[in-house]
Amino acid sequence: MPGSRAPRRPFAGRRVVLGVTGGIAAYKAIAIARDLTLAGASVDVVLTEGAMEFVRPLSFEALTGRPAHVSMYPAGDPLLHIRLARDADCIVVAPATANFLARAANGMADDLLTATLLATEAPVVLCPAMNDRMFAHPATQSNLARLREIGYRIAGPAVGPLAWGEGEGPGRMLEPEEIVGHAGRALEGATGLAGRRVVVTAGGTREAIDPVRYVGNRSSGRMGYEIAAAAWRRGAEVVLIAGPSHLPVPVGVQLRRIETAAQMLEAVRDELPRADSLVMAAAVADFRPADPAADKIKKEAGGVPEIRLEATDDVLRATRDARPAGCVVVGFALETADAVENGRRKLDGKGLDLLVVNDATEPGAGFEVDTNRVVLLAPGVPDEALPLLPKSEVADHILDRVEQVLMAGRGA
Ligand code: CTP
């Protein structure tokens, strides 16, 4: 996810076995090992003989600070596979070649990686990578079906450029950041959001003045994107309704791009009836030009145009009757004075289960920064003032509260 490289949930202090098998995508496994380690995990890399043709243990050891393993029977450590399997919180195999999938699907234990897989009770994520014809082969497809049946998660493959001369096709391994996202979802385990549908809005809206100019705001969308990423990681199905933003779409999240407040309203109204939670992190325009010009306003026309504004609909208020029973609704408020008092009024007026208030005048809070300092307001409970935190951590605090309300069945 965008932003911080500091140790973070759910990776901090967790053990991940990264299996690497013999495909050209093995070079990307080096970045996966690095990113998991930077996120705070202890990463034990296991290479197959085939992987050794592409990458060397030393590359991994330099990045993880831990020995990388190849041999099933290293001197003095005959039960390495059992130890790795038992200590793992999650096993990721990336790339997983057609040959490896065939061996794993048949329960073979003829090298350190397959033996570790057989011996573990940890969640397993397999990231297939191979030529498109090998991927499409009925043998590979039935192996994948069997592996799913066993309970392994299959992440990818994507459609994209394959090895040299092979063009594009389904078979390309997911990118390292996507695989780290899948590992995060596996590590998160069963949370109160698993299987729930969460709708998140993010970013600012743009309201046309003429075909090339607009009224907008400084929202980057970061807070909403972090919430969407964290909700998917916790096992939710996530729809992200977002205004224009250059941020990468978080892995697993379904994106609905909108531009104006009116389009935001339409998208929320459409998604809300199926939502277990709506998190309204978007900075929706309160006003828009009343009469946008059909053609570009020209300087030669003389004078300075006066732009008359009109109110937009308030999305939270206008969709109140579309909230299904038990839906947990979260609003945001950006204030510059009397933040908590104004927030309490909004909580009530907009019928919210939680309001995330931030004071735009505080250092490190608000737009275009990776951090935020917020106060969480909810009906009938004391205010919770959080310290200055990365937005990814603020997202987790917000989702903890959403889970609590969902579990208690007290949605708006
Ligand atoms: N919001 C909304 N529709 C709008 C404007 C805001 O649904 N047209 C949502 C925001 O996404 C946020 C919450 O309402 O979750 C609070 O927005 P804010 O602009 O702070 O509150 P307002 O009620 O617009 O009050 P004011 O701007 O006067 O402070």
In short:
By secondary structure, the chain is of the alpha/beta class. The chain has helices spanning 26-38, 57-64, 80-87, 98-105, 112-119, 132-136, 138-150, 176-188, 222-233, 261-271, 315-318, 339-349, 391-408, and strands at residues 15-20, 42-47, 90-96, 124-128, 153-154, 158-161, 168-172, 197-202, 207-208, 214-215, 237-242, 254-257, 277-280, 287-289, 309-311, 328-335, 354-359, 371-372, 374-378, 381-385, 389-390. The chain has two domains: 15-188, Flavin prenyltransferase-like (Rossmann fold, 3-Layer(aba) Sandwich); 197-410, CoaB-like (Rossmann fold, 3-Layer(aba) Sandwich), CATH 3.40.50.
Structural notes for this entry:
The chain has helices at 26-38, 57-64, 80-87, 98-105, 112-119, 132-136, 138-150, 176-188, 222-233, 261-271, 315-318, 339-349, 391-408, and strands at 15-20, 42-47, 90-96, 124-128, 153-154, 158-161, 168-172, 197-202, 207-208, 214-215, 237-242, 254-257, 277-280, 287-289, 309-311, 328-335, 354-359, 371-372, 374-378, 381-385, 389-390. It is an alpha/beta fold and 412 residues long. Helix 1 runs parallel beside helix 2 and helix 1 crosses helix 8. The longest helix has 18 residues, at 391-408. The model has no long low-confidence stretch (mean pLDDT 94). The chain has two domains: 15-188, Flavin prenyltransferase-like (Rossmann fold, 3-Layer(aba) Sandwich); 197-410, CoaB-like (Rossmann fold). Strand 16, helix 12 and strand 17 (354-359) form a beta-alpha-beta unit. The protein has an eight-stranded mixed beta sheet with strand order 12-11-8-13-16-17-19-20, with helices on both faces. The two termini are 30 Å apart. The structure holds cytidine-5'-triphosphate. Cytidine-5'-triphosphate is lined by residues 261, 280, 282, 284, 286, 312, 314-316, 331-334, 346.
